[in-house]
Each structure stands twice: as C-alpha cells, then as structure tokens.
C-alpha cells in the first residue's frame, strides 16, 4: 500500500524495536504488519513523519477525518487503533482488549513471545503446570535473570508435581510425564529463584488457563478437556482503559498466588 516499504524480512525487527518504546503499540504494530514506515504512511496521508511519530510515541489522537484515513490505510477499525474512543461502552472496550488469537499455542511465533518479554519492564507473571517450552525454547531462565537485574518483579506459579490436580491432568491428556515436567521446570528455574524480586510458588489448583503477563500485555492459553496446552488456543490481550478481560485473568492469577506455597527443591 505504501510506496516506501521495508523489506519483509525486517518486519519483526521493526516490531521488536517499537514494542519497547511506544505508547500506541497497536498503531505501530498495524504499520509494521502493512510494511509502512512513518515516512511512507505520512506520504500517503498527506502529513509529516513527525506527526506520525507523535501519534505513536505521545499517544496523540488524530482528528476524526484523519483517523478514518489511517484506519483505511492500515485495514483496521478506528476503535482497535484507539480503544479510548470506546470509553463509553464497557462491552466494546473489553472487545478492544483482544489483539490477536491463535488456534494453538504452537502457532504463536517465538518472536511474539520474545518481543513481549523484551518490552516488559515492571511485571512478568506466569501461571502454568509445567511450561517447559519457556525454559526449553525461549531461554526463560536468562530472561528472568536479565529482567530481575533491570528491576522487574517476576512471579511464577508452577504445578505441584505431587498433587492430584496435576496427576488428573496427566491422565486426561494421556501425558504421564506431566508431573516430572513440572519438577523439571522448577529445577531449570531454581538457579534464579533467589534473585531480587523473583518469587516462585507451587500450586495445586485445577489449571483452567495458563497465564503469561508481560506488563500491559498478556498471552492467555485456554485449556480444553484432554487437549495439550500446546494444541489449545492463545489470546493476546492488551490492557486498555475501562477494559475488563485483562484484569479478570489477572485476578485469577492473584487468586492462585494467594493459595500457593513457596517453591522448594
């Protein structure tokens, strides 16, 4: 659509850089998805790259006619790019919290996980039974080490390898190694358990959803009876003013945290 587009191979590079600094993540992400640079979008809209930069990094709200042109150029709804427009409707605001959905966790690109981890500066919260893919494929131990050193608070909830809830899930999924995988993940993470602002707890609750919170973003891995977590859907939620979904699942995390016990090895 734009006349000056970055090479396709650079799309994730753009996304990784901008997720760390921008206010309007959705606008910049939509630009990257359509291969628009600030200059290219400004040229198509008849404005300046500096104005586009203000929309992104300062959260400036364009006037209605310009919003329409931007949304058309990026093939998005205005209310997705600027969810504050829906502030008068709680239902619509909550709908705007949904950024993307994947039919299975295995379909979520590793670059999405890495970008969200990289942008997190205050809070990382994880609720799983085993979550082995984090330590095996996404270098999560080093992520914890790096984020702890940078001042982030990291709270991790792992399934109790000896509890009935984990054994029941193992039977339902036909995955007898699940208890051992819970223990294995704890062993991986044990080298960072005593770092500042890192807290790991063990829980015995039924796992309805795996929760991965990175500041104002969340990946929510829902679970179906007898289905592996890796083959179950994932929703990307973004916290927006007036929204309810993000806080609903965050409260679920807190409820499990409250009844969990400190991890021991």
Describe this structure in words.
- By secondary structure, the chain is an alpha+beta fold.
- It has two domains: 8-81, 434 Repressor (Amino-terminal Domain); 98-262, 2-Layer Sandwich (Endonuclease, Chain A), CATH 3.30.870.10.
- It has helices at 11-19, 25-33, 38-45, 49-57, 64-74, 78-81, 90-96, 110-119, 132-137, 140-149, 164-173, 178-189, 245-259; strands at 98-102, 123-127, 153-159, 198-203, 209-214, 217-222, 234-238, 261-262.
- Strands 1-7-6-5-2-3-4-8 form an eight-stranded mixed β-sheet, with helices on both faces.
- Helix 1 runs parallel beside helix 8 (110-119) and helix 3 crosses helix 4 (49-57).
- 33% of the residues are buried.
Q: Quick one: CATH class of the largest domain?
A: Alpha Beta
Q: How many structural domains are formed by the residues?
A: 2
What's the CATH H-level homologous superfamily of the largest domain? Endonuclease Chain A
What overall form do the CA principal axes indicate? elongated
Whole-number radius of gyration? 20 Å
Low-confidence stretches: 14-22
Structural class: alpha+beta
Largest sheet: 8 strands, mixed
Strand order in the largest sheet? 1-7-6-5-2-3-4-8
DSSP summary: helix tally: 13
Amount of beta strand: 15-25%
The name CATH uses for the topology of the largest domain is: Endonuclease, Chain A
Q: What portion of residues is helical?
A: 40-55%
Integer average pLDDT: 88
């Amino acid at each position: 659509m734009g006349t000056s587009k970055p090479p396709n191979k650079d799309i994730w590079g753009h996304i990784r850089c901008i997720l760390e600094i921008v206010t309007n993540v959705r606008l910049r992400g939509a630009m990257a998805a359509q291969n628009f640079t600030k200059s290219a979008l400004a040229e198509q809209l008849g404005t300046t790259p500096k104005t586009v930069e203000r929309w992104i990094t300062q959260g400036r709200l364009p006037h209605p006619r310009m919003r329409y042109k931007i949304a058309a150029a990026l093939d998005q709804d205005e209310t997705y790019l600027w969810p504050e427009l829906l502030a008068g409707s709680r239902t619509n605001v909550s709908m705007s919290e949904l950024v993307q959905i994947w039919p299975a966790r295995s379909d979520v690109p590793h670059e999405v996980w890495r970008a969200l981890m990289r942008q997190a500066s205050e809070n990382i919260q994880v609720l799983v039974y085993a979550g082995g893919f984090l330590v095996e494929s996404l270098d999560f131990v080093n992520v914890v080490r790096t984020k702890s050193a940078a001042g982030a608070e990291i709270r991790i909830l792992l399934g109790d390898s000896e509890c009935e809830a984990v054994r029941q899930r193992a039977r339902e999924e036909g995955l007898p190694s699940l208890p051992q995988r819970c223990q294995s993940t704890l062993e991986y993470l044990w080298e960072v358990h005593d770092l500042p602002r890192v807290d790991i707890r063990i829980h015995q609750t039924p796992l309805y959803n795996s929760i991965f919170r990175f500041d104002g973003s969340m990946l929510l891995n829902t679970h179906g009876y007898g289905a592996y977590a890796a083959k179950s859907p994932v929703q990307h939620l973004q916290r927006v003013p007036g929204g309810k979904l993000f806080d609903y699942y965050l409260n679920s995390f807190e409820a499990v945290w409250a009844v969990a016990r400190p991890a021991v090895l």
